[in-house]
Amino acid sequence: MEPPLIRLDRVVKRFGRRRVLDGLSWELRAGECAVILGPSGGGKTVFLHTLLGLHAPDEGQVDRAGLGPDPFRAMAVMFQEDALLDDRTVAVNLATALLERADLFEPPADPAARAAIDAVLREVDLNPETDGPKLPSALSGGMRRRVALARALIRRPRLLIADEPTTGLDPTSSALIYDLLGRLIRQRGMSAVIITHDPACASRLGYPVYFFSPVEGTMPRWTPPDPGRRDDLGAHDEQRHHALQLWMRDQLDSHRRRRSEAGQAKEPAADLPTEPAGAARFINDVLEALGRSALLLARLAGRFSPALLLRGLRDWGLGSLPLVALIFLLLGVVMQVQAESAVVDYGLSNRLPELVALSLLRLSPILTGFLLAGRCGSAIGAHVGFMELSGQRRALWTMRIDPDRTLFPPLFWSLALAAPLLALIGMAAGAAAAIALLGLPVSRAQITPTFFLRQFPTFLSAGELGVLVVKSMLMGGGLAAIAYGLGARPKRSPADVTRAITLTLVLAFVWMTLVDAALSLLFPN
Questions:
Q1: Which fold has domain 29-54+65-214+223-270?
Q2: Per-residue b/e over 207-234, b at no fewer than 16 CB within 10 Å?
């Protein structure tokens, strides 16, 4: 007999002091389409993530040897959140999975890749010409599920894993997805694991069907009224569906009774993970953010995609240029007015270029950093946070793409390079504003714009400009690490994303202030 594709041997998985998987043993054999039934919130998704290797067991073993020498290449996942990359078209989502590359933003030019994308879209009843160029936001819920299924199928897996494949869909759309799954599993000869709370899914697709009972070590298996029937996946059978509903109700009642008899009807408060409140929580968040940011810096040693770097420079460098130019133009006017009020009455108008130059030199790094934190830090934290909340980061993992190694280094270098460039452009904008003001009748200075333009560069030494560049690079790189690290923290709700953005801004401002103060003290001239 062939070994099972996957075997769990007495697996334990804890969160805090609570055991979600408690000595669970289970196996999946080739050709099976196992449906794991159970109530929502019972831990089925933790079971799935343990199968995938996204969670390492605290005790026991997960054996994937039956999937071959590269088990993670042999598996593909359809997440309940769809987990489609929201900034890329349907075709590019599929190309990302096919080529295992996260730096694709246009469909591949390779004819073979294009043919594979078109073929799998047709398999899930989508039109490559009309649906392929669409963004996920332009699709209905049912179409998004089809795209998620197509992205899984394009990897030609031996094992398809689907987590709540019809969550949020109406009964008609759900039935269509079940029929589609059944047809494709049969046609491709795949094995499958389908996690669901919907008995209709199991009655159409399951052989075998299990009830997820995470605290009892095993999962009870249903014996259908027509055992062995496997030629009609997706077909609806009232007798089979009714029998399954009765069995599931009995399992739920039995499960609750056993928990009650064991004194576990309600988990003791001490067994549930608790979160600190108030200042303690803030301190924990800060320490975790610093730890995550430090770990991310180790990712900079590897190679990264030039395409992602150029995209980052476009988004954060060129994208921030209008805001930086506007702020520094206004700052240049304010500086010139204040400098005139300070020196003109004393006959020191010739010192205006020096005052403005030195003020811009000192202020431009930290002001640019604050502007980047407000615009880019919050945007990066929100985007990465949404990727975490919506499952996009987990989807990249299942496509054998390490999101931290792939996405963070180009983001870091794009901000580290953009920050000094923007600071220098900001200085030029501030000087231009001061020169323009000198040419207006409201100016009381006794110098000409030509004199200012000639004198201004003489107060900017190479050493001081070098310090400005180093400051700005440290500020930009640190901002990237803080924003990405906090965005990538586990998220359970939109409130977690909002909290991470707020903490990103706080820590970014603190980091930039410390960098500016430290380098100003080290290089006072």
A1: Rossmann fold (3.40.50)
A2: bbbbbbbbbbeebbebebeeeeeeeebb
